[in-house]
Specification:
664 residues, alpha/beta, nine-stranded mixed sheet, 25% helix, 28% strand, elongated
Amino acid sequence: MTFLAPALLFALPLAALPVVIHLIHLYRRRQVKWAAMMFLRMAQRMNKGLSRLRQILILAFRVLAVLAILFVITRPMAGGLLGLTGGVPDTVIVLLDRSASMEQQNLSTGTSKRAAGIAKLAQALRDTVGTRSKLVLIENAHLQPQLLEKPESLIDLPLTGLTDTAADMPALLQGALDYITANQTGRTDVWVLSDLRQSDWDAGSGRWQALRTAFASLKGLRFHLLGYAQPAPQNLAVMVERVTRRETAEKAELLLDLRVTREAGANEPLELPLRFVINGVSTTLKMEMKDSLLVAQALAIPLDKATKRGSGRVELPADAATADNVFHFVFDEPAVLRSVIITDEDVESGPLQAALEAAADPARKYAATVLPRSRAAEIPWEETALILWHAALPKADDLAATQLTTHLREGRSLLFLPPETPDNGTFGGLHWGAWSAGGKSMNVEWWRSDAGLLANTRSGTALPVGDLEVQRHCEILGEGTPLARLTGNVPLLMRANTTGEGNAWFLGTLTGSGSSTLARDGVVMFAMLHRALNEGARGLGKAQQREAGAKALGSGDLGLWKRTDGSTMLSSEQPLRAGVVENGERIIALNRPLREDRPEALGKTALAELFAGLDHHLIEDQVESDASLASEVWRTFLMLMAVALLGEALLCLPPKREAQPVAA
């Protein structure tokens, strides 16, 4: 509990006044002995216990009444929902989730979850700690601690503004842990403002155990979780999967593959107007959405034949979640879909090269090159979308490791295949173990069919992954995201936890006849390789699609990038906002990460498991709520004083006289 007038707490010893007055009143009496009083004293001794208890209760009520009025004068502040008790901490750290999903709004007021949470938190911190505690902000986009002079700075600071990024909550908590450890912050309150999206909290990550252990070793640490988990009703989200410019002798047009989703269970037909804006020209198409998913493939939008490159966007009607109503795209002359296979074994490179050079899209050009490990430096990094690495993993201080990391950071793809003699090299937290003995074939008992390299086709048909036979496999060890498992829960395909726009996968078997039936059956291998190639192709060419993030525009001078719509903002905020930016001949469309469209939120049980053993408190709030997080509670003490005075008055009442019998 905190107080707006804490100096008046020095008057608390005045609560002893009733006791002092009572003692003075006892000792100022003059005793006069009177023989007839001995009978009264005998009767008094018989009732001494009850009388003393009554006097103690009267004194206790009087002291309580004085205490209550003193607390009323000091104007106490408390947050019954917040748990703002225990005094003022030395340091307050605010961990802010400013991801795209935090922009869900109250349609009547236009206030977002982010804005509502920041306003309430700033007011609560101003009223309870003011400037007596060191205030530190860490937000999800930059993950850099920022010292604030006062709580009100949270409202107007650019670092608390809206973004179209995703949040990595374990990384945010790691940032708080690093700051506490490096600065010895003393008693610390950590405030976490988030919408509790499962995709942002990554509850299955192995990082949580290490975080819990490290936080548990710190003393005087409390967590306050301010959550806005309510979903957006009847929310619609749009995304563009592919954009292709096609020109014939008669016309030119853009072919778009787009997808519109809405909350599960909403199956009533909906006439949906889709607005397309291409190079400033607007076109509206009405489409009927019959269930929770609308898929449009090769949707043709007329285009001027003289327009070879440009940008555009698809817009949905406005709803509560504004961030997923728009998707930006760019188009240009398509780049060659180039892949490079690093291997010293011709037996393995043959099927892989044949699959990668086969045209999945007749309108695109494909090229695949095979290089031995000793010539990996010859990889045309700027032109390569996918690298298949069938060799020992590079050491951390090796030049190849740095180049592969840069390759991922630029949005390209990596697929690692196990070498015949694995070593202790590691990449993205994963490394190879030992090969199985071989012999009996194993089948794939589970694979992820909703996303990733083995996802269902656009029509919803599952890939025949379950028909694959694996004669031998290599262990995949470390922390990653499993995409397929063999019988016995053995990982077969995993995605590494890497930074950047690109993806790195580890496949635990080879395509040869002695290892698996990938090359013989062909369908799964072809789909897997071309999906990895298409993922990496987003980082090719002068026109690219990227997810909004701090590194989305590279590490160069961000001030060189300009918005095509003419809007201006801080250069540090450029890569965090959706839209189209250009720098010379390069043009990039920035969009929200698609995982921000998943509405699933963590429940109380899941949060309790993540913070098990830590002093934490969950405050569930809503954008529509006007309740303050912390408020004055002097009325409570005023009522307590009234109750105490009433109790004291009742105890002071004289006993009721018994009726005397009337003589006959």
